[in-house]
Amino acid sequence: MQKRFAVLSLILAAAVTLSACANTVRGVGRDVNSTADAVQDSVQ
């Protein structure tokens, strides 16, 4: 029973960690896109 609980806890922790990484990567992509748009606007 304890082994099963430990495995489920690790799976839950991994899922939470991966979802946080996905949000961070998505945010960085938006920031880079905004920066590129600002640079293009300033050049024109």
- Head-to-tail CA distance between termini: 65 Å
- Share of residues in strands: under 5%
* Average of pLDDT: 84
Uncertain stretches: none
Which structural category fits the helices and strands? mainly alpha
Keywords: Signal
Signal peptide: 1-22
Question: How would you describe this protein?
Answer:
The chain is mainly alpha-helical and about 45 residues long. It is about 95% helix and about 0% strand. It has 1 helix and no strands. The N and C termini lie far apart (about 65 Å).
Gist of the model:
Residues 1-22 form the signal peptide. With 44 residues, this protein is mainly alpha-helical.
Structure characteristics:
rod-shaped
List the helices and strands and how they pair.
Elements (H helix, E strand, L loop, with lengths): L1 H42 L1
